[in-house]
Amino acid sequence: MTDAGRSGQAFLRARSEGRGALVGYLTLGYPDVPTSYRAMAAICGDADAPGVDLVEIGLPYSDPILDGPVIQRSGTQALQRGVRTRDVFGAVEAVAATGTPAVCMTYWNLVDRYGVDAFARDLANAGGCGLITPDLTPDEAGAWLAASDAYGLDRIFLVAPSSTDDRIVSTTRACRGWVYATAVMGVTGTRAQTSDLAPELVRRVRALAPDTLVGVGLGISTGAQAREVTSYADAAIVGSALIKELIAAEDAGRPGDLSGLRRVVADLADGVRGGR
After folding, report:
1. Which of 115, 98, 103 is nearest to 28 (CA)?
2. Of the ranges 47-51, 70-74, 194-198, which one carries the lowest mean pLDDT score?
3. Cβ(161)–Cβ(37) below 8 Å
4. Catalytic pick from 67, 87, 122, 250?
5. Phi, psi (deg, nearest 5) at residue 252
6. DSSP per residue over the chain, as a string?
7. Banded model confidence at residue 129, pLDDT cuts 50, 70, 90
8. pLDDT per position as a tens digit, 209-261
9. d(Cα 52, Cα 143) in Å, to the nearest integer?
């Protein structure tokens, strides 16, 4: 893969500053749709406090196969509170207004039901960069490959420690933007230590597809962990640690309080700035 796409440009900008990139995941519609828009804009930071380099907007799904308990809780409650697939385009617009690029992470059934071409069209019109598709493999992605080409969208597929060399090669060739390397075998969630499988997986990707940008996710929760990951990968991807702060605020009766979220992002942003 040689095309960094629009989302990969965020990684390259960070590299030009001598650091790794930070990708932040938040669930669309949690704790409610308007607050989720505010939270996504807040993690982008401002002139006084750097934030994430790329926002990953998670679409809630009724049967998530990769999500851990924190993201599952946020997604389930978002669905119960009436979030709809079309709400993602408002989230993309809210992030784009900050000048920070955004991608969506979604299980494929949601896009298929909306209409692949229509979803790609509306995502592009809202200012989105592309999709991360955890349950869609390149060999089953014909409709998405065509639609993403038609609308200039990035397509980010996943590789795992269990991926064969052939699968890594075929997956990275199909990507535009970057490839998502899952650092652990299992579901998402914060962990006390980063996976020791991640450096080897990134090494394999770099050996087999040298031009590929690599983001590492699953398990990162602190600035120190983000610093460790960006010492060998292009980006650290953080989700559960951010959503935990929104859950804590809601449980404390302050669902609109984003102060805890901002503190965690500040720690992570400081971490990647010490990562090279």
Report:
1. 103
2. 194-198
3. no
4. 67
5. -85, 5
6. ----HHHHHHHHHHHHTTS-EEEEEEETTSS-HHHHHHHHHHTTB-SSSB--SEEEEEPP-SS-SS--HHHHHHHHHHHHTT--TTHHHHHHHHHHTTT--EEEE--HHHHHHH-HHHHHHHHHHHT--EEE-TT--GGG-HHHHHHHHHHT-EEE-EE-TT--HHHHHHHHHH-BS-EEEE-SSS-----SS--TTHHHHHHHHHHH-TT--EEEESS--SHHHHHHHTTTSSEEEE-HHHHHHHHHHHHTT-TT--HHHHHHHHHHHHHHTT--
7. very high
8. 999 999 999 789 999 999 999 999 999 999 999 999 999 999 999 999 999 99
9. 31
Domains and CATH numbers, the chain: 5-272 (3.20.20.70)
Catalytic residue among 46, 48, 56, 149: 56
Q: For this structure, is 166 an active site residue?
A: no
pLDDT of amino acid 1: 57
Q: Judge whether 11 and 234 are in contact, CB under 8 Å.
A: yes
Nearest by Cα to 239 from 273, 205, 203, 268: 268
Tokens of 174: 């199909």
d(CA 159, CA 246): 29
- The Cβ of residue 192 has, within 10 Å, a number of other Cβ atoms equal to 8
Active site residue 93: no
Give the C-alpha separation, 276 to 127, whole Å.
Answer: 30
* 200 pLDDT above the threshold of 50: yes
Say if CB 117 and CB 150 are below 8 A apart: yes
- Cα separation, 138 vs 115, in Å, equals 18
